Amino acid sequence: MSRGVLITKEETLLLKGIAILMVVIEHFGQIVGLGFLNPLGPIGVFLFLFLSGYGLTRSYQKSGRDRYFIKKLQKVYVPYIFTVCVFTLWVLIIGKKTDLPLFIMELLLIKLPQGSYWYLVLMFYWYICFYFLTFIISNKRYLVTMMMFFSILIILIMNFNRLYIWQFFSFPLGVIAAFNVENYDKEVSSLQSNNIVSTLFVVALISIIVKKLPYVDSHQLGFVDTIVQISLTLSLGILIILFRDILSRGVLYKINIFFGGLSYELYLGHAVSLDWVKEATSINKILIWVLLTIGITWLLKFLTTYFNKALYKHIVN
């Protein structure tokens, strides 16, 4: 087992690689009709949100709020702006209609170019929440409690959208992990002595079995399916984090690190033509989707890196 809740920068990159692969594989499953891959997406998003909560808290502990929103805009929003531009160009290429008001609404996240970008809305909610809560609350327990309350508020604002419900605990768990870094040796001992790992395996197994029961399978997105998806997401997501050292070996390490470095751009890029390939799936369209995903991902990486470097030079000078 890895070192408790102490997650290094390298391990963060590794886990991001695993997360994005799970999301992309789930979406590929939707394209080719492999429904059993659907649970992978929420687990991947859990990892992203957990790491965001963890990383944001660790950064706050070290540097406070120094250039807080500028950093977030550079890291998250700038790539999204380029994505909206690429998406608009793609829409025009395939002969669909768009206009300036829609373009502006997409830039402001009032309307989403593609459904997969709901994650960005949730992230900006959490960025704003974290910034202001850390201003007024210094006690860790009260802070986490208020974050759980805020998580409920997000679900209400988003009209009980199942995607937000599935990620109810994800960001706050990352914050809790960061607050307990100094106790990671004790945390590992606690996990081992209390057999929490075994419990997580059992919960994950039961969740998979229940999810495939005829009643649950025929009432997808219902109450029972939602509870099962939450338990499956939490149990497998936490297990991946705890056993991340196993995924740090040999070729798996290289693959996950590579995709971890491109994770956000790949998340944005693979969704640009996703609806198009789903409309009337064929081998040719899948190949075009793959090529477009590769091209757009690297384009976003290049544009974002170039823009942020130019912006940094401008600020420094």
Description:
This protein is an all-alpha fold and 317 residues long. 77% of the residues lie in helices and 0% in strands. The chain contains 16 helices and no strands. It has helices at residues 9-32, 40-63, 68-93, 100-107, 118-136, 140-157, 162-166, 170-179, 184-193, 196-211, 214-218, 223-242, 250-261, 263-270, 274-279, 283-316. Helix 5 runs antiparallel to helix 6 and helix 14 crosses helix 16. The protein is globular, with a radius of gyration of 20 Å. The N and C termini lie far apart (47 Å). The mean pLDDT is 87.
Supply the key terms.
mainly alpha; 16 helices; globular; single chain
Which stretches are poorly predicted, pLDDT < 50 over at least 5 residues?
none
β-strand amount:
under 5%
Largest sheet: none
Structural class: mainly alpha
State the helicity in percent bands. Answer: over 70%
Number of strands: 0
User: Helix segment count?
Assistant: 16
What gross morphology would you assign? Answer: globular
Mean pLDDT: 87
Radius of gyration over all CA atoms, rounded = 20 Å
- SSE string, helix = H, strand = E? HHHHHHHHHHHHHHHH
Tell me briefly what this model is.
This protein has 317 residues and is an all-alpha fold. 77% of the residues lie in helices and 0% in strands. The chain has helices at 9-32, 40-63, 68-93, 100-107, 118-136, 140-157, 162-166, 170-179, 184-193, 196-211, 214-218, 223-242, 250-261, 263-270, 274-279, 283-316.
